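User: I'm designing a mutation panel for MarR family transcriptional regulator and want to avoid disrupting the core. Could you give me a predicted structure to guide residue selection? Please restate the sequence first so the numbering is unambiguous.

Assistant: Good idea. Sequence first, for numbering, then the predicted structure tokens:
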Amino acid sequence: MPQTVVLHERQHLYAAQPKTDIGRRLSDALLALRRAENAHADRALHSTRLGTLDFTALRYLVQAQRDERMLSPKDVIVMLNTSSATVTNVIERLVNRGYVTRVSHPRDRRAHYLVPTQAAVELVESAYHDHHAAIVNVIDSLGESESAAAAEVIEAIVRQLDTIAGPRQDTDTVAPQL
């Protein structure tokens, strides 16, 4: 019974339904996509056997490495929006599991950077591989006009949502990979 409530809540819009049948179908599809994304995120987290904060930190470190950026513990504090004590514990757990190494700062002997190991990269990639491969598979199966139409709809929804939440701040930050 509780799971039924959760399922129905995720299928519910807290606004008027779209006016047309096809509009309602699109709305239902977007809600189903969100449910599938959330379910995958839960499965990915579970597959890593890491806590939420640890896995988030590891994803950020892997993404920073892809972007050829070096992150310090202070950067991770800002990115996770948590305390230095919490980040210290997260880093220790990741180091102890062989997912992160500390590398000395080239000019400041007191400072260091956090670098994900190859095992960390493989863990993050394996956690998301099937999910991302499924998305790419569907996109690659679409014709050019279908892809363009889908992109336009999604971009329009994002622009509308951004007017509510304020501008996205993804231009110079490390964002999680979905």
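For picking mutation sites, this is relevant: The helical segments are 2-10, 21-48, 52-66, 73-80, 84-96, 118-141, 144-165. The beta strands are 100-104, 112-116.
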